[in-house]
């Protein structure tokens, strides 16, 4: 599936999850959710369903300005063939200094591919809104330094039971929370991992909570608590979209 055939920049979404019935029905698939959050007019966005073995041609990689790796119900530390193939692709993109944005599973698999450690979160599931604190003394090369309007703490939608244990050598942790010590990390100006979901809306998370409850991944009390907390607060979606777009489009260069 291809995005708009614009003359401008070209990006690829590496989709590591199958579309839920809800997201298909309401948004037409996760591809549309990501492009609405991170895309801009005149760009071309291509979709690769890596979870189904659909990968970009290695000879085409140089034609892309950036890549986004989505979330996934799979474990980033698993050894499924497509996950190992994705790790190799991410190592290649890193060597090419291509911009790669990893979201949730994408954040974790990026970390794993580049030499870090990921695993089950010691403190269990994190589902709902989480206040993430931006580290203020990151090095000058960080893309966030030019985004003066970013507040010191931002709310983001989270839905994960795995986490980054140890970032790769040369990586910098640029955000943390009370629950997770690595909420964001960067490597140079070309790699960014975000544990939360900048692209998620509250209705997408509510539907996901229902599905996790129905397949016994979480308990009823936990699900109800997460949903009730979602009703009284909002994620800082506009800020997160600005961060992701600034990173992908290289507006700090």
UniProtKB/TrEMBL annotation:
A Pfam family annotated for this UniProt entry: GATase
Keyword Cytoplasm recorded: yes
Pathway, per record: Secondary metabolite biosynthesis
GO CC, any one term: cytosol
CDD domains: GATase1_1
Residue span(s) of domain Glutamine amidotransferase: 26-202
Top-level taxon: Eukaryota
Coiled coil: none
InterPro entries in alphabetical order: ChyE-like, Class_I_gatase-like, GATASE
Keywords linked to the UniProt accession: Cytoplasm, Hydrolase
Gene Ontology terms describing biological process: glucosinolate metabolic process
Subcellular location, record wording: Cytoplasm, Cytosol
GO MF, one annotated term: peptidase activity
PANTHER family named in the record: GAMMA-GLUTAMYL PEPTIDASE 2-RELATED (PTHR42695:SF9), GLUTAMINE AMIDOTRANSFERASE YLR126C-RELATED (PTHR42695)
Family: Belongs to the peptidase C26 family.
Name the UniProt record assigns to this protein: Glutamine amidotransferase domain-containing protein
